[in-house]
Amino acid sequence: MTPGGSAWPAAIDSDAAARIARLMFYALLAVVLMTLDHRGQYVEQLRALGWRAVEPVIMAVEAPFALGQRLGEELRDRHELMQTIEQLELERRERRAELALLEELADDNRELRALLEATRRDLPDFQAAELMHIDLNPWSHRVVINRGGRDGLQAGQPVMDSRGVIGQVDEVGMHTAQVILISDPDHALPVRVQRTGLRTVAYGSGRINQLRLTDLPMNVDLDPGDRLLTSGLGGAFPAGLPVAEIETVSRPSGEAFALAEARPLGRLDRSRHVLVVDAPIAQTSPENETSVEEDPAPEPETP
């Protein structure tokens, strides 16, 4: 070896060559491993094995949190369920108390019916109809509906809307019928005061929003706001149908009767769809007519 270190370059070159050789070996090994992994999916299998080994640990760590969350939800659901049960139990007690009260009232009602010998009253049936024509005569309050004799209508049947009585069937055709409104000056309706039970007659005034009560005693117990219902007298109108509400009561000095004005509850000038009440119409029996005709006149007394 000559002075100056000519052997150092040779040593350095051999070390570099060894490093390059190792690098090439590792690169070739990496290529081979990637090829084998691509074909055999070994890395995925190792990852799956690792996950299977780690999964119990993860489950063990998550178990307390999941258990606590489940217990909290169950406790909350149980609390809500208990509140619902308590509310239902309270409502059940209230309903039982109301039922007991209703049973007592039913017993009282049956007892009163037995004492008064009252009979049950069946509710009337209704038949829907629609207005077709309005009489333009200001003194004649009449309308025409699209029901007639073929539908079973008869003269005298009550007609009402959803609020109250508006009129009465006057003339019946085959397919239509004429209805006279309770506001017509020629119409009179037997009514009773709901508050006191007073029976009287409501006459049409010729005004669409007013009825007149003219045959009232001066000391009549009648106040504005009292409701008038059909009395059932006369046989045409069933009892209890709403008719009107008292607006004014006057007692003119020097007159024999008090006067009252009432506002019809039915919308006489606005209702388009009406109901015809299928109530039986009272008619004079032939026996009564015969008895009246055959009643002999009293013979004049001889002096």
Structural topology:
Layout: H1 7-40, H2 42-116, E1 125-134, E2 142-145, E3 158-160, E4 165-172, E5 177-181, E6 188-193, E7 199-204, E8 211-216, E9 227-230, E10 242-250, E11 258-264, E12 273-278, H3 286-294
Antiparallel strand pairs: 1-2, 1-12, 2-5, 3-4, 3-12, 4-5, 6-7, 6-9, 7-8, 8-11, 9-10, 10-11
Q: What do you see in this structure?
A:
The chain has 303 residues and is α+β, with helices and mostly antiparallel strands. It folds into 2 domains: 13-117; 128-281, Thrombin, subunit H (Beta Barrel), CATH 2.40.10. 39% of the residues lie in helices and 24% in strands. It has helices at 7-40, 42-116, 286-294, and strands at 125-134, 142-145, 158-160, 165-172, 177-181, 188-193, 199-204, 211-216, 227-230, 242-250, 258-264, 273-278. A 6-stranded antiparallel beta barrel has the order 1-2-5-4-3-12. It is elongated. Mean pLDDT is 80; it is low at 282-303.
Which geometry do the CA atoms define?
A: elongated
Helix content: 25-40%
Strands of the widest sheet, in order across it, are 1-2-5-4-3-12
Return the CATH topology of the largest domain.
Thrombin, subunit H
- Examine the secondary-structure arrangement and name the CATH architecture of the largest domain: Beta Barrel
